[in-house]
Design brief:
Number of strands: 0
Distance between the termini: 38 Å
Radius of gyration: 12 Å
Oligomer: single chain
Strand content: under 5%
Largest sheet: none
Shape: globular
Number of domains: 1
Length: 70
């Protein structure tokens, strides 16, 4: 149940973040993408999926860097 909620909240957050990016809604897009990456990272750790841990860890680092570039 918790894994399903994490997965779908992460999905919704990433989709909303992408939508905000396409409409140039800053910095909300970065916050939503960060939240989605964190949720997906937690989910990936819980299900022990190494490739998803790596991808979402790298995405989170990129999104966090985006907070400081502006």
């Amino acid at each position: 149940m918790i894994n399903t909620m994490l997965k779908w909240l992460g999905c919704a957050s990433v989709v909303l973040g992408a939508l905000c990016t396409s409409f140039r809604i800053d910095p909300l897009n970065i916050y939503l993408l960060n939240a989605g990456a964190v949720l997906y990272l937690i989910w990936a750790v819980r299900i022990r999926e190494t490739n998803l841990i790596i991808v979402n860890g790298i995405l989170l680092a990129i999104y966090i860097a985006g907070l400081f570039v502006k």
